[in-house]
Write a structure and sequence with these properties.
Layout: H1 2-17, E1 21-27, E2 39-44, E3 51-56, E4 61-66, E5 72-78, E6 87-93, E7 99-104, E8 109-116, E9 121-128, E10 135-142, E11 145-152, E12 157-162, E13 169-173, H2 190-194, E14 201-203, H3 211-214, E15 218-223, E16 226-231, E17 237-244, E18 249-256, E19 267-274, E20 277-284, E21 287-294, E22 300-307, E23 319-322, E24 330-332, H4 335-342, E25 346-354, E26 357-368, H5 400-409, E27 414-424, H6 438-446, H7 455-458, E28 473-477, E29 480-487, E30 492-498
Parallel strand pairs: 14-15
Antiparallel strand pairs: 1-30, 2-3, 3-4, 4-5, 6-7, 7-8, 8-9, 10-11, 11-12, 12-13, 15-16, 16-17, 17-18, 19-20, 20-21, 21-22, 23-24, 23-27, 25-26, 26-27, 28-29, 29-30
C-alpha cells in the first residue's frame, strides 16, 4: 500500500509542479506614485469571457481590461479614490460592455463606480442602505447582475438590492412562511439563525476550502438564478432556505441528518452543497456518518458510516491533524484517535467535483492556533469570528474564491483534523485515487522547497505562510483558476493558469 501511495504521490507531484502556465505578463503602466498596491479585484464577463483586473493603492484604482485572448484592450485610471471605501464587494456588466464596481466601508456606506470603456471615463456616486437597522450581509454577481444582500435581526428582515435603474431598488423578502427551528428545536426566525455568527460566507462551486471556513454552520451558495442558505444550527437537520431571484420569493425545508437515534445534544453536524447534492456529515462519540442527498427529490443517494473501533475504509489519505503549538502536522494511524480529536472539533466537510469524480475533505476545525499555549483538547477557539490573516491583511468576504484561497493557504494559522475521500459519479468509493487540488498546486509554485522534501516529511511540514503575498490574487476563469503574481519591485504582474 505504501509503495502504491509513493508512486501515486510522485506522479501527482510532477503533475502539480509543472501545472502552471503563464498566460500574460504586463507592467502597471498607469501607476506613477510610490504607494504600495493594497487590493486586487477581478471581474469576469460570463457572456464573452472578457475580464478586468483592478489594483488599488492609497490614492488610485487602476483598471486593466482584457479580452478572451488575454490581450489588454483598454486601461483606466480612477484618480482620487475615496479612501473611506476600501472593500470591493462586487460588480455588474452592462450589455454594451461597460461595468459598475461596488465598494463599501465599515459604516455601511457604499460607492458605485461606473466605468465607460468607449469614453474611457469613470463616474461615481454614493448610496446607503434604506434603513438604519439593516446590516450588510453579502453580495453576489449572477449572469453579470449584482445583488447586495442586507438583513436585520430586529425586524427579521432580509433584503436584496438591485441596481437596474439610476438608484438602488430594495426588494424585501417575505419570511413569514419559513419553517425553521433553533438549536434546541423551538421555532426560530431566519435572521436570528443567519446572523448569529457573522460574517456570512458564500461558497463557490468546485473551489477548495479550509476546514476552518467549511466548519461554518451558516453557508450561502449561488445556484442558477437563486440563492441558497444552508443552516446547520440544529444537529438533527440541515435546514435549506432558497431565495428565487426572479420573483424574490423564499421557501424552506428540512433534511434529516444521520444518526436519528442519537439525541441532539450528543451529536454534531454540518453540510456542503454541490451539484444540487447535499453532503451531510454527522459525528457522535461512537460513530461518524455522511450521507449524500439529492436536493431535487430530497432522497438519500448514498450513505457512509464508520464507528470508533472500525477502519475508515472510504479514506484516500492519511488522517492529518494539527492540535499543538508547533508548525507540524501529525498522521493519526488509529480511528480511535481521530474520534478523540473530533470530539473537540467543529465538524466540517467540503467537496470538489473534477474529472467526473467527487473529492471530499472530511474532518473539523479546532480553532485558531494559540502561540505559546498548548491547544490540545481546548475548545475555546470554536466558532471564532476572528478572520484577520497574518501581517495585518484582511479578506473581503464578498470575494469568495479569493477568500477561500487565502484561508486555505494560511491554514497553518488554524488547528484542524481531516482526511480525504474520493468518489465516482455514482458516489462509490475509489480506493487508490489521489488528488492534488488547484490550491495545492499554487502552494507548490509559491514554495518550491516543498518539492525537496522526503515523502515521509511532506505531510509533517506545512506550507510557509510568508511565501504568499496577500497582495497577490486568484480568481476563477472558465473552468480553471488564474493566479496574479505581483512583483512589487518592478510593478509587473504575471497571470498564471492552474487547473484541478
Amino acid at each position: 500500500m505504501k509503495k502504491n501511495f509513493t508512486t501515486t504521490f510522485l506522479l501527482t507531484f510532477c503533475t502539480t509542479f509543472f501545472s502552471q502556465q503563464k498566460l500574460v505578463e504586463f507592467n502597471n503602466s498607469l501607476k506613477d506614485n510610490n504607494s504600495n498596491i493594497k487590493d486586487i479585484y477581478t471581474l469576469v464577463n460570463h457572456q464573452n469571457n472578457f475580464f478586468s483586473i483592478f489594483f488599488a493603492d492609497a490614492k488610485n484604482v487602476y483598471s486593466y481590461n482584457f479580452d478572451n485572448t488575454f490581450s489588454i484592450k483598454s486601461k483606466l485610471l480612477f484618480e482620487n479614490k475615496r479612501r473611506k471605501y476600501k472593500d470591493i464587494i462586487g460588480y455588474s456588466f452592462l450589455e454594451n460592455g461597460d461595468y459598475k464596481l461596488y465598494l463599501k466601508n465599515k459604516e455601511n456606506d457604499f460607492l458605485e463606480i461606473y466605468f465607460s470603456l468607449n469614453e474611457n471615463t469613470s463616474t461615481s456616486k454614493e448610496f446607503k442602505l434604506f434603513k438604519d437597522y439593516e446590516t450588510y450581509l453579502q453580495s453576489v454577481t449572477i449572469n453579470n447582475k449584482f445583488y447586495l444582500i442586507s438583513g436585520s435581526k430586529e425586524v427579521n428582515g432580509l433584503y436584496f438590492y438591485t441596481f437596474d435603474e439610476d438608484k438602488p431598488r430594495r426588494n424585501k423578502i417575505n419570511l413569514d412562511k419559513l419553517d425553521l427551528v433553533s438549536s434546541s428545536g423551538e421555532k426560530k426566525e431566519l435572521m436570528s439563525i443567519l446572523m448569529k455568527s457573522l460574517p456570512l460566507f458564500k461558497f463557490d462551486e468546485n473551489t477548495p476550502n479550509s476546514m476552518e471556513i467549511s466548519s461554518k454552520k451558516q453557508k450561502m451558495y449561488a445556484q442558477d438564478e437563486s440563492i441558497i442558505f444552508t443552516l446547520n444550527n440544529n444537529s438533527d437537520f440541515t435546514q435549506i432556505v432558497k431565495i428565487d431571484l426572479k420573483n424574490f420569493i423564499a421557501s424552506s425545508f428540512k433534511l434529516k441528518t444521520p444518526q436519528e437515534d442519537i439525541k441532539r445534544r450528543k451529536k454534531k453536524s454540518n453540510s456542503y452543497l454541490l451539484n444540487n447534492k447535499v453532503f451531510s456529515l454527522t459525528f457522535s462519540k461512537e460513530k461518524l456518518n455522511f450521507n449524500i442527498i439529492d436536493l431535487a427529490n430530497r432522497r438519500t443517494i448514498k450513505e457512509f458510516s464508520v464507528s470508533k473501533t472500525d477502519t475508515i475504509k472510504f479514506k484516500n489519505s492519511p488522517i492529518e491533524t494539527r492540535t499543538g503549538t508547533y508548525k507540524k502536522y501529525n498522521d493519526l494511524k488509529k480511528t480511535k484517535k481521530f474520534f478523540n480529536t473530533m470530539s473537540y472539533a467543529n465538524p466540517a466537510i467540503n467537496v470538489v467535483f473534477n474529472n467526473d469524480k467527487y473529492y471530499l475533505t472530511i474532518g473539523g476545525s479546532l480553532g485558531p492556533v494559540t502561540r505559546g499555549v498548548s491547544s490540545s483538547g481546548v475548545g475555546g477557539g470554536f466558532g471564532t469570528n476572528s478572520l484577520t490573516l497574518p501581517k495585518g491583511h484582511s479578506v473581503s468576504y464578498s470575494n469568495n474564491v479569493g477568500n477561500s484561497f487565502y484561508y486555505y493557504t494560511n491554514s497553518d494559522e488554524f488547528n484542524f483534523i481531516k482526511f480525504s475521500s474520493i468518489l465516482n459519479e455514482k458516489f462509490s468509493h475509489l480506493e487508490d485515487e489521489k488528488n492534488a487540488n488547484v490550491f495545492e498546486k499554487i502552494k507548490d509554485y509559491l514554495d518550491p522547497e516543498r518539492s525537496k522534501l522526503k515523502l515521509s516529511d511532506f505531510f509533517h511540514l506545512p506550507f510557509k505562510g510568508d511565501k504568499f503575498d496577500p497582495n497577490d490574487g486568484v480568481f476563477k476563469y472558465k473552468d480553471f483558476y488564474i493566479y496574479i503574481d505581483y512583483n512589487q519591485k518592478n510593478e509587473t504582474f504575471k497571470l498564471l493558469k492552474f487547473t484541478n
